[in-house]
Amino acid sequence: MSSPQATSGEAAFDPERFLVVPARTFDDLEVGEVFRAPSRTLTDAHAAAFQTVSADNHPVHYDAEWARRHGHSAPVVHGLQVLAFTAPGATLFPHVIGEVFVRFTELSCTFTGEVHSGDTLYPALTITALEPTEDGGATGVVTTAATVHNQRGELVLSGQHKYLLRR
């Protein structure tokens, strides 16, 4: 079976122009823009999968009795797993910046509250700074505040990401 061809007046399909959202450049971004990731309720299966991948076998993450004896109400989800929810690819940000992304250059975070199986997380990236680099104006650094709140509105992670983009 042959594939349909473009008819007169209709442009041929171009996979490189098939965008989720219109791509923008560094100069089109604005301080204060927020890129949210979908909320997600963590399950024991998520925690077990991350434990397997990370090889972090500390009992605080899987042993309910050990966790309780050490002051936790339940096993604690791995902090790096919570941080992973702030990945820019979990939001529309990479689609918004299209082909201008050069690299993820830096991240930091503070874990401000425990996360347990059954918690629902709400990650977001907010642009806090846009700084042209000293390379003749070819690139710029986007700084975002990375936050994760739980279902009770508590901030459980606060951090910062930096990305280098072409201008």
TrEMBL record:
Task: Please state every residue range assigned to the domain named MaoC-like.
Answer: 31-131
Q: Which Gene3D superfamilies match?
A: Hotdog Thioesterase
Into which family does the record put it?
Belongs to the enoyl-CoA hydratase/isomerase family.
Protein name, as recorded: MaoC/PaaZ C-terminal domain-containing protein
Q: Which organism is it from?
A: Streptomyces hyaluromycini
